């Protein structure tokens, strides 16, 4: 252990040495998706689209949308979290911090982390919200990893949950994003382990704010006279706006870069990856990355075909499904990667 010492009356914490450093590991995963299935056929009855176009351009056949009055971001994340905590062999009282990734919280304030803490009847632990959209879960995982490595917390609940369907423009004008985005929640319990145990090897986070308006939602906004007005509603400012072509072009480059960055940082080869779990942005993007890495189908996890793109929810939902399907074995080298609004992108490399 390190010791505190003072220099010129200032408390200084010396650099933590490698031997002191803790490691973090995902020890339980869970997910929840709403039971309302939205098929491409249904979408083609409310907007000018068709099954063939959607499947060819996105790979999506159906997705889940929430039921108003039944599902909330808090309720969905609570269900996912209870499953993750139980699979970790813990109780909600064992959790000592929450990191909650969402860009679609139940309230403008306070954040969704505190609502989850209340819902699960937890101790008065800290709860932090992360707003990095599609990369939100990896950002949240990285924050949890740092808190555990420094010895601050032992068991952290990391959540990614969204209700996107209420911000979709379901007219013909919004069809290119309305067919992609969906609702759902995933959760992971990240706990401290000894340095020689499997666990998180690294996380890499990036952002390039000059592209913020390529995928964004303007309202409610604190920089207008009222946060939401009739004019803003009439203009559709509360709807998600996406420049699909720009997102696609940047995504394929950044996904590849950030995966390579993770491999190089750990002296690993792409052939050593046992399972790549990409953010489920679009199946064509995932297929492109798979091809670039030369990975066979069994080494890439995709569920966008039946769940769509649930923004911060995709990676924890995918991890939970992959675990249920026996596709995550102890020690497997797992790569998580995401790209989305911001633009923000990120990767995590871990041994399961
Ligand atoms: N159904 C039918 N036609 C549609 C449509 C839909 N849902 N959405 C768009 N179109 C039409 C367009 O109007 C356009 O018609 P036009 O040629 O007559 O003008 C045509 O299809 C091509 O549009 P374009 O936007 O160039 O299509 P695309 O091949 O780029 O595909 C996306 C659109 C959105 C599927 C694609 O850009 C994409 O996947 N981008 C990345 C999005 C993403 O991953 N977002 C998540 C980030 S986290």
Q: How much helicity do the residues have? A: 25-40%
Individual helix count: 11
Q: Give the mean pLDDT.
A: 94
Overall tally of domains: 2
Largest sheet: 5 strands, mixed
| Cα Rg | 20 Å
Give helix and strand order, one letter per element, not per position. EEEEHHEHEHEHEHEEEHEHEHHHEE
Major sheet: arrangement of strands: 3-9-8-6-7
Small molecules bound: coenzyme A
Q: For the record, what is the CATH homologous superfamily label of the largest domain?
A: Thiolase/Chalcone synthase
CATH architecture group name of the largest domain: 3-Layer(aba) Sandwich
Share in β-strands: 15-25%
Shape: globular
Give the tally of β-strands. Answer: 15
What top-tier CATH class of the largest domain fits best?
Answer: Alpha Beta
Report what the structure shows.
- The chain has helices at residues 40-46, 51-58, 73-87, 112-119, 136-149, 175-178, 230-235, 244-265, 283-293, 304-307, 314-324, and strands at 5-7, 10-12, 23-32, 36-39, 62-65, 97-101, 126-130, 155-162, 184-193, 200-207, 215-216, 241-242, 275-278, 333-340, 344-351.
- By secondary structure, the protein is α+β, with helices and mostly antiparallel strands.
- The protein has 2 domains: 18-193, Thiolase/Chalcone synthase (Peroxisomal Thiolase, Chain A, domain 1, 3-Layer(aba) Sandwich), CATH 3.40.47; 200-351, 3-Layer(aba) Sandwich (Peroxisomal Thiolase, Chain A, domain 1), CATH 3.40.47.10.
- The strands form 5 sheets. Strands 3-9-8-6-7 form a 5-stranded mixed beta sheet, with helices on both faces. A 4-stranded mixed beta sheet has the order 10-15-14-13, sandwiched between helices. It has a two-stranded antiparallel ribbon with strand order 1-2.
- The relative contact order is 0.18.
- Coenzyme A is lined by residues 49, 53-54, 57-58, 134, 175-176, 179-180, 244-245, 247-248, 251, 281-282, 285, 309, 340.
